[in-house]
């Protein structure tokens, strides 16, 4: 009997986000926290990509000529602004429902994006490669973190980079990102995150290293209640982002 193929897909997690798909583009809906989170993510991506690839971050289309994969793209909240910055964008998600929502919104917005209902392993096994991979708030939802990070890393071209954003596995994160955000403030639907599936920076960086990537930058992201916005911070106890590159040589 042939050995079952390993997969990164957790069907229950895919079904959970598929059920919420209609909410993706409602800034006051169930994905409101992601809409609030987007500006700090986009600014970090823009500045780091410009630095890495020698682009003017303040140009109209600084990402022209760069091929980007947003893996676990959901409804396309990052894909559309990146396409407007000039990138050739592939948005991939295991949920066909999410992809249909993303396609419809992009069509209505007049933005060209290659959306695909597929997995990281299928993309990697088909030989796809990218200058930049965005792996944002996904690793805590996959069934096999090592396999997922490894397959994503396979697609990073020499000299290319991968962004990973996720939540740390700390008691502080349990209190703020799960109990506070899901049960007290109700920023997210209950059950969005499971504490045991959160990934510590050392675990993530080990997986990236084993996949042949080198971590070049890391930052925490915290919510400033007075300013009502997310901002970068040295504090990585809850939300954090990491950049890893595939050496060009």
Key features?
8 helices; alpha/beta; eight-stranded mixed beta sheet; 249 residues; globular; 23% strand
Secondary structure blueprint with pairings:
Elements: H1 11-19, H2 32-53, E1 67-71, H3 79-84, E2 88-93, H4 96-109, E3 114-117, H5 120-125, E4 130-136, H6 145-154, E5 156-167, H7 171-184, H8 201-210, E6 214-224, E7 229-233, E8 239-245
Parallel strand pairs: 1-2, 1-4, 2-3, 4-5
Antiparallel strand pairs: 5-8, 6-7, 6-8
Helix pairs in contact: 6-8
Rg, please? 17 Å
The CA-CA distance between the termini, in Å, is 41 Å
The share of residues in helices is 25-40%
Order of helices and strands: HHEHEHEHEHEHHEEE
Unreliable stretches (pLDDT < 50, length at least 5) are none
Largest sheet, strands/sense/barrel: 8 strands, mixed
Count of individual beta strands: 8
User: Strand order across the biggest sheet?
Assistant: 3-2-1-4-5-8-6-7
Structural class designation:
alpha/beta
Q: Give the DSSP E fraction (strand runs of 2 or more residues).
A: 15-25%
Q: What shape does the CA trace take?
A: globular
